[in-house]
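not sure who needs this but someone in the group chat was asking about Site-specific recombinase XerC from Allokutzneria albata so here u go. i didnt clean anything up, its just raw.
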Amino acid sequence: MTSAAVSRLVTAWLATISSEHTRARYRRDLGRLAGWLMGHRGRGLLATRAEDVIAYAHTLTGHRHDLDHRAHPLRRHDTIATKATAWSSFFAHCVRAGLLESNPVQQARALDPAAAYPPHPRNPASGADADALRALVAEAHRDPWLGGSLGAALVGLLVATQWRPERITTRTLADLSERGVHDGEQWLPLPAAVVGYLGAWCAERPDVVGTHVFYERSGLRRISAIDLMRLVLRSAERAGLGDGLTATRAARSAAEITERGESIELPPLAELRRSAPAPEQLALPDDPREHDPVQPALIPLPQQ
């Protein structure tokens, strides 16, 4: 089913819900599930499996638990269970329409009834320390598809700003300055290493019509939030950090380190080029997860 057809299906489902508030919440919750599925599983909504529902529920933090993050017994309206109700409503609509044989949320509840709740706020899921985040940036520089200054700039900006991926990939050239980055009325100073990554990338950036900072080296397509999410997952796997370190969790870990008054000393670009060199040529497969390691690379890196 095409994305346009799925969009029409979601619109038809939302039209069956009378409450405007509920429609808005259900649209938001389903959209976040769809983004996670595409970024982490490479599947669309209609290909959702029970294991996907369980895995996504486990990624949601204690801030969405029935107890808030300070462990006060306060009933919240944004729990995993309420989100699962939204997902289940959509999939039930698909079952009634004959598009699915069964509801994956109901299957997930049968497999793992506890999947509706994340780790307790007083025992949150472990994040990444400063060394892990430095390794993440190094492996992003080494990435065979988005490596070099582009990969370092994307992940370095994620660690430095602690923004969500979509806020990073939508930056324009006008947002950058010699020492920081603008986001609306907010100006955020950046570490010298990240400024160096961005400066090198802007010098190598393809001469495209658009004003956005991050494009593929071919200049044919902008880098999307999903591209950045996949880059972080690939880099974390190569660095031995496991498959649980997502872009959002990396940003959250960086924020926690900063709140403790500690700093994350990212390596300068010259050091990355020595210790974690990018491939001399970068490949551009249709789907990076299905890339054949022996496939010849397509785009040579600029001369240093």
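also The beta strands are 180-183, 186-189, 281-282, 299-300. if thats useful
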